[in-house]
Each structure stands twice: as C-alpha cells, then as structure tokens.
Amino acid sequence: MSRSMSSFEDIRPYRDDEVKVVLSKLLQEDELVSMLLKFRFPKSALWQRKLMKAPIRLWLRYKIRNLNSVFDFQCLVERYMQRMIKTTTDGLSSSGLSKLDLSKPHLFISNHRDIALDPAFVNYILHINGQDTLQIAIGDNLLSKTWIADIMRLNRCFIVKRGADSKREKLANSKQLSAYIANTLGEQGDSVWIAQREGRAKDGIDRTNSALISMLGINRDRESDFSSYIHSLNIVPVSISYEFDPCDVAKAQEMVALRETGSYAKEQDEDIHSIKTGIVGRKGKVHLHFGEVLRGSYDNAKQVAEAIDEQVIHNYRLMDSNWLALSHLDTQAKSEQPELSREKLSESYFKSICQDLPNSVRDQLLQMYANPILQSQRQSGTSL
Q: Hey, how many other C-beta atoms are within 10 angstroms of the C-beta on 332?
C-alpha cells in the first residue's frame, strides 16, 4: 500500500530546499549556542561563555555558509564523527557488509546500546564503504526541544511518535510509521535503521520487541503472504559491540533504582546528557557485524523477532571487558575464559569506575557487561 509523501510531513527528514532556512533558525537558538560553548569550553565560567555567544554565532555562520543540502550538512558532521572515533575509541571495525547486495535498500535492525552512536556508527560504516547514508528512526521522546528535532531531521532522521494516549492514536501513528518505512525502502530507495526495541538495553541483554515487527507488518496487503512481505523489507540484523560503555554507571544506577524502588524518574534533559556522555566518553574498541538478510519462513512477528535475536547474539563480538566482568561475578568463569589481549586495560577500567560505587550498583554494572556472554551461552546451549 502506498501513500503520498504529504502523509509524512510531520515525521519525514528535511529536504535539500529546507536546509538553509533550518540552519538560519538554529543559529538563533540561544540554548544550542550555550550548549556548544559549554561543550567546547567546559572549564570556562558562565560570564565568559555569555561574552563568547556573539563570536561563536559569527563562527557558526561562517562554517555553514556553503551548506546547501543535506549531503553538505552530513559532510560537516562526518568530520566531527572522524574526530570522535579517533579520540574516544581504540578503533572502529566491521564485518559482514561485503556479503550484502548493497544495490538494494535494506532495513537494518540493530541492538541498542547508545542513543545517538548506534545509528551513527552504522551510517558511518556504510558511508566509508561507498554507500549512501540511510534514514534513521528516532523517538519523539528525544526531541523535547525544537532545535534538537531540527538537527536530527537535517541528519536524515524521521520521527517515531511515542507519546500517544489513546489506542486509536497509537494505531494511527503505527500505521503512518509502517507506511513511511515501506515508502522509504520501496519508493525512495533509501536504506533505514531502527533499533530492535524502544529504549537502550541497559542490562546488556539484547532482545527484539515483537511489537516492532508487528508495526512493520501493518503496511502489508492482507492478501499477501507474511513471509514474502518480511522478505521484501530486506531486514538485516546488526550487532554493535562496545568494549566500554560511557553510560554504564548511569545505566546500572537506573537498574538498581528500578529493582529496589519499582520506579525511576528521569531528570530533566537526562537523555541529552546521555547523548553527550556517549559521544565524548571512552568506548575502547567498537565493532559492528552486519548479518544476513532474513529469508526464512515466518508465520508471525514473534518468529521474526527470534530470527533477529539469533543473529544479533551470535554475531556480537565478545570483548575482554565482558569476560573480566563475568569472572568478577563468577570465579569459575576465570578458568573458562579465552586468552585476553587487553586484560590489564579492562581491569584498570573497572577499578577506576567501580571503586566508589555501592556494591549493588557495582554488581549490576558487571552483570551488564557479563550478560552478552551469558546470553550467547544460553543460545548455544552451553554454560560455564
């Protein structure tokens, strides 16, 4: 089923002809300028940053003077992406991409560990391998401020509406999103990234929400076969592995709070802080594995979700940090772990971040790092 692009005006990314206007509007956003100054000069006093607002606006106007398209904007972002990879990782690697027919658009569904970097790394790997950038699904819960939404939509992000109250509105939003993804893959010919679940896997357990697959299937012609429709989406599971998670302490604290009190209230702009922490924080080695296109026989969304999970878990690259975390929780695991090339580095990392944590938070953090191994063992039917 096809729908005109006018049906997607409120969720689509910006077009080339809108770039100049949006960039000009962003320059007037005082909060954005203040955040950039705080990010660039973290040790400066508030009065100093206020004095720098006018000069930084002039500098930004100069930087964007020749940006006339989304591609131009993404080229600017690419330079900062390269700098981030060089300064906060010990190497970004990938595998599996060469086995895909990239002349066709694909729906990349990955595990979800970092709000901004998961799709950014997928996009970057595709780009440096000579492919067009993809369109990225992002929840409207992350777009509480207009200027954030503008930046995201400039970077080829489309909006997933999550704030609906009524069942009717939720269904309408799901229908629109399902149709947009199908339109992007089929009519626009662009690849798409979406996370396997709403919210990051803060416990380190990667599991696809079958509701996501059900949403994708809403656009299917009811007379067509379910498996055939899934095949038409060219779904590729992607496993993203981080040696170190810059948000690990915050995730562990949230998990402990939920377990002990039954609730967790986010602070204002907590998601924005998580995005910043993920970008500037230490990540160690980062690896992406692109799996095989789903071509099985599926009767329902649950079976598709299980097929995605099977690949994501199997292709997840286990790091020294995972094995060391498990050995701290289970002494038997020490004798079973493989030879570790970066053991001292991981030990130093855990010592530095865990030394002042309550035992409950420390154990939760170690469990988060250990769970990818345990999940892999459950899948293969082995255990320590």
A: 9
